[in-house]
Amino acid sequence: MLIRSFLSMALLPLLAIATSSLATGDENSPPNVVFFLVDDLGYMDIGANNPDTFYETPNIDQLSKSGTRFTDGYAANPVCSPTRYSILTGKYPTRVDATNFFTGTRPGKFRPAPLNNRMPLEEVTLAESLKASGYATFFAGKWHLGPSEEYWPEHQGFDVNQGGHNAGGPYSGKRYFSPFENPRLEDNTTGEHLPDRLAKEASKFIEQHKDEPFLTYLSFYSVHTPLMAPPELVQKYKDKAKRLGLTDKEAFGEEEKVWGKADWKGRPVRQLQSHATYAAMVEAMDRAVGRVLKQIDDLGLTEETIVILTSDNGGLSTSEGWPTSNLPLRGGKGWIYEGGIREAFMIRAPGITKPGTTCSEPVCSIDFYPTILDLCGQAAPKEKTLDGVSLQPLLRGEESLDRESLYWHYPHYSNQGGFPGGAIREGDWKLVERYEDGQVHLYNLQEDIGELNDVASQNAHRVAAMRDRLHRWYKDVDAKFLQPKDGQQPWHPFED
């Protein structure tokens, strides 16, 4: 706590001297920040990325048109808690062994790597950095970054916490409909829909703090399971699927099997977007986004507010209801293939971003922390480790960042069937390394976005160079790996 107090005192003068780059009319006025984090939203689930999507996302699509959309934006991990950690700290979650969803310890052929299931209180979070500079800070929705209340949002820099606790989904009460029986969300009207309630709370906070800088962090429980939505919306998409002739008879293909039922030859993977309930969940979430954006507009704050939207991992396509398809991306949530880590990723920074622009530079959730501080005219605490970089040069139209590689480390057997492995991306190239046996694959994403054509054997020199950089990164972040099971020893990158 002494460290936190010192950092807070050190950061307070920054508010007075920071010069906002936004077109606010007052060059010394720091911008507001609204951050939307959608749980389990697939890259191909929004119209901005996929004009042929079955789902309807007009508000997110309009947000994309009003700022910069990143075509190659990534989550730091293929499941939720690690990515959430990366957003709030600007660090690879591997640095603290937060490498799976918290409490996820499924064994497979081997035991998984050790797992830290909480975001350390010593971390200086995004909320703490902004709060120290005079920002009012608000959190709503899914937290999933600690097992008990001392690790919940109100102890990690947020003044207000509406609905954030240890759970990874709305599993209490009537789940997506009130009464929610959520320890951080008061039950009001019976039957209230959770996405709308969270948007209502966010909008209320924005109105209350319209005359001071604020961070509003709306972290939807949607579109995570359980698969539930308002009946009228579900019927809308049932009718739509019928009108388009979409059925589940040809909706599934086959992915590789790492674990699963004995009678599975491979793991089923959805290849057609036609799930009516999931579609309704996506639209309900989009409506909630629209409600908050309208509040910003109605209060005249549009030109003073940075707005960001992303997801924590790819769409759920290989288990738990198989609700969405990520094609042409391979795999989904729980997989280090593109379907599991490539995300909706958009930023609107008035006065900086040009409406309707796209950027193909690979970027990652570790970049949000330094980007937001940079856009707010602040520097990160000198004592803090940062793996991310500010994306402001890209937002201003520069072509590339001075960064060679992005990395992933997932030493676990995912609930969705994904295998333990790591990956590195450099330019158009992505190398995948399997942790059970050390096998590697190389893909050219420009030519093979579906990661179906392994060209490792034709590019031995590139494989060796990328693998060497990946292994050096493992050492830098002190990565942990699979553990022995039943007398069997897994492969390890630093053992012969």
From TrEMBL:
GO terms for molecular function: arylsulfatase activity; metal ion binding. Its cofactor is Ca(2+). The keyword Metal-binding applies. Belongs to the sulfatase family. Keywords: Calcium, Hydrolase, Metal-binding, Signal. The keyword Heme does not apply. This is Sulfatase. Residues 31-377 form the Sulfatase N-terminal domain. Residues 1-23 form the signal peptide. It comes from Rhodopirellula bahusiensis. CDD domains: ARS_like. PANTHER family: ARYLSULFATASE FAMILY MEMBER (PTHR42693), ARYLSULFATASE G (PTHR42693:SF42). Pfam families: Sulfatase. InterPro entries: Alkaline_phosphatase_core_sf, Sulfatase, Sulfatase_CS, Sulfatase_N. It comes from the Bacteria.
